[in-house]
Structure formats: structure tokens, C-alpha cells
Design goal:
- This protein is 32% helix and 16% strand.
- The chain has twelve helices and twelve strands.
- The strands form two sheets. Strands 3-2-1-4-5-6 form a six-stranded parallel sheet. The protein has a six-stranded parallel sheet with strand order 9-8-7-10-11-12, with helices on both faces.
- Helix 11 links the parallel strand 10 and strand 11.
- It is elongated, with a radius of gyration of 21 Å.
């Protein structure tokens, strides 16, 4: 696929993870593959993106359009008119049934319903060429997880030089469509707080959840000292949010698109290393990322994320949250 004259046109599908954060971190790869196809692939080649359906509207809000929702319709179409190649960036039950002439993915013994034609080596930790990894992480400033996915481009036959000559990355690469982002859920200025992590309490990766009472203590202090409104987001209604002027409990009430719009209007985000942190980072607001566990994924734009690693209590996080408010000019008193 790296030479226009040597191969026939190909339809390549990239099936994104259904985890919100992981899917957002895959966006640089999608931008790169589309640029590579336009520059080097035979005329008529296409790169199709298939993703968890609630993310389609969010991606459109940052200019990543022509995205297919993973669902029964997409799976049926994949059997009637299969893409030439499909790259599954993660194996999940939501992807079962999506078909391609040739499939690439991470082969795992415990995933008996996921069988690929080729093991996707970059997902198994096989290192990229050093010059490509250095370019992506140093010059493009991509986080490690995003950079490692560029092994897909090499699997398609593109060269390191072709990637470097066509791909660059900055905040402008995923520019917000502000005309679609107005929201009236909370009166400005407000800060967004997420106390959940991974899939909620008592589920996989629960070690990434910092104690909820610490977040509530930080929120109380910000409200008392600066008159800041706090919008609490997430899925679970536990623990209850105290009845306070300026505390707004939106947990379980917002779609992913509504949450993205809420993020775009906020002065900042404080929360665990989980999907909403990446959503806030994509929305262009400063974040305070609380990392209760050493194993974490940095967001796309790391320069706007203040990292607090394994804090013992509220006093370890509060200064970063307060500084975020002061920098935004949102401290009321």
C-alpha cells in the first residue's frame, strides 16, 4: 500500500477500542493513516474508522468525520462488502462479528471468539523503530500509548520516512468546532470533577480510583475559598453529593456528547485517570489528573495536564486545582 503504482486500491478498517480514553488516544493514528493513504496509496484507497457509537459525535466535534458506529448494521455490511483489511486495536465483545478479508489483532488464548489472520505485533509491545518512536514522542509529543499504535502504519507497508514526511501533530490537529459546543447545564464558571475510574467501583482496574471523600474535601475547599461551582460527573450515584450551593450532581444524566460539551465550557477538570480525563483534555481545558496507580495512560496533550501521582490526601491535590482556577481567572473570592 506504500506505493501508488504497485498495488490495487484497498479499503482498510481500523476498529477502535470501546474504552473512551483508549479510543481518543487512537486519533493520531487515524489522522496519520488518512494522510498516508492520500499521499501514497493507490487512487480509490480508503481508511475507515469503526468506533463505539457514542464517540462518533465527539469525534465529529474535533473534525474526525466519516466514522462508522460499531453495531449490527456495521457488522452486517462488513459481511456483505468486507474491507480488505481490518485492524482491531483491542479485542472486546462489542467487536464480535465484524468481518474483513484479512484481520489483524492481538491474539489472546482467553479470547476464544477473537481469531485473527495476523497477530498485531505493536499491540504486543514490539518496539517501533527508534527514530520513529523518537519523532512521535519528542517532536509530535504523543503519549507512549498513542505512539505505539503506529505499528499499524508499518504493518500496512508504509515506511518510517513516509510517516515522518506526512504526519505532524498539535492541538490544531483536532480543533474544536465551537459552534456545536454551547451548553447551559451549569452556569459558568465551573469546574468538572469525576470521582470514578475505569468501570466504576468494585470492577476491573479499581486500583485507579482515588478515595471519593478526598475529592469532596477538595470541592468543599474550592467552593468556600473561591465560590467555585463544581459539576460532578460519572455513572454511579454513590457516594451522595452534599447539598451545597454550587454543587451540581450530573452523574448518570449526560450522554457522552453532552459530557463533551460540558467539558468544553468548563474552566478545568479534576479527576481520576479514566475516560473523562481524556475527554476533558480533548475538549481543550486544563486538567488535574489524579493517578492513584503507577500504570496509567497520559492524555494526548500532556502539557495541559497537571499530574499528581499517588497522592496521600486532599492536601496533595488541592494546590494544583486551586492554581488551575487562578490561571483561568475563575476564582471568585
Amino acid at each position: 500500500m506504500g506505493n501508488r503504482t504497485s498495488k490495487s486500491p484497498e479499503r482498510v478498517a481500523v476498529v477502535l477500542p470501546n474504552r473512551v480514553g483508549d479510543a481518543i488516544l487512537s486519533l493520531p493514528l487515524i489522522l496519520c493513516l488518512r494522510k498516508l493513504a492520500a499521499a501514497f496509496a493507490p487512487a480509490g484507497s480508503r481508511v475507515e474508522v469503526v468506533t463505539y457509537s457514542p464517540l462518533v459525535e465527539v469525534f465529529g466535534g474535533v473534525g474526525v468525520t466519516d466514522v462508522t458506529q460499531m453495531g449490527v448494521g456495521a457488522k452486517l455490511r462488513s459481511w456483505l462488502a468486507p474491507p480488505d483489511k481490518a485492524f482491531f486495536l483491542i479485542a472486546t465483545s462489542k467487536n464480535f462479528g465484524f468481518h474483513a478479508r484479512t484481520t489483524y489483532g492481538l491474539m489472546q488464548r482467553n479470547k476464544i471468539l477473537s481469531r485473527y489472520d495476523h497477530d498485531l505485533r505493536c499491540l504486543r509491545g514490539e518496539p517501533l523503530p527508534a527514530d520513529l518512536y523518537r519523532y512521535l514522542t519528542t517532536e509530535c509529543r504523543l503519549p507512549r500509548y498513542s505512539a505505539e499504535q503506529f505499528g499499524v502504519a508499518l504493518e500496512l507497508g508504509y515506511t518510517v520516512e513516509q510517516v515522518r514526511s506526512t504526519f505532524s501533530f498539535s492541538r490544531q490537529s483536532l480543533a474544536l468546532d465551537r459552534s456545536r459546543l454551547a451548553t447551559g447545564e451549569v452556569a459558568a464558571p465551573y469546574l468538572v470533577c469525576c470521582m470514578e475510574a475505569a468501570y466504576g467501583r468494585g470492577r476491573h482496574n479499581d486500583q485507579r480510583r482515588w478515595a471519593a471523600e478526598h475529592y469532596l474535601a477538595i470541592a468543599e475547599r474550592l467552593r468556600e475559598r473561591h465560590g467555585c461551582r463544581i459539576a460532578f460527573i460519572g455513572l454511579a450515584a454513590d457516594p451522595p453529593i452534599p447539598a451545597r450551593d454550587g454543587f451540581v450532581d450530573l452523574r448518570g444524566r449526560l450522554t457522552l456528547w453532552q459530557l463533551f460539551r460540558l467539558m468544553a465550557g468548563a474552566v478545568g477538570y479534576v479527576g481520576n485517570d479514566t475516560g473523562p480525563l481524556h475527554l476533558a483534555n480533548l475538549a481543550g481545558i486544563p486538567t488535574v489528573g489524579v493517578y492513584a496507580d503507577e500504570d496509567h495512560h497520559a492524555p494526548l496533550f500532556g502539557e495541559s495536564n497537571s499530574v499528581v501521582m499517588r497522592p496521600a490526601g486532599p492536601d496533595d491535590v488541592y494546590p494544583a486545582a486551586e492554581q488551575m482556577l487562578l490561571a483561568a481567572g475563575a476564582a471568585g473570592r
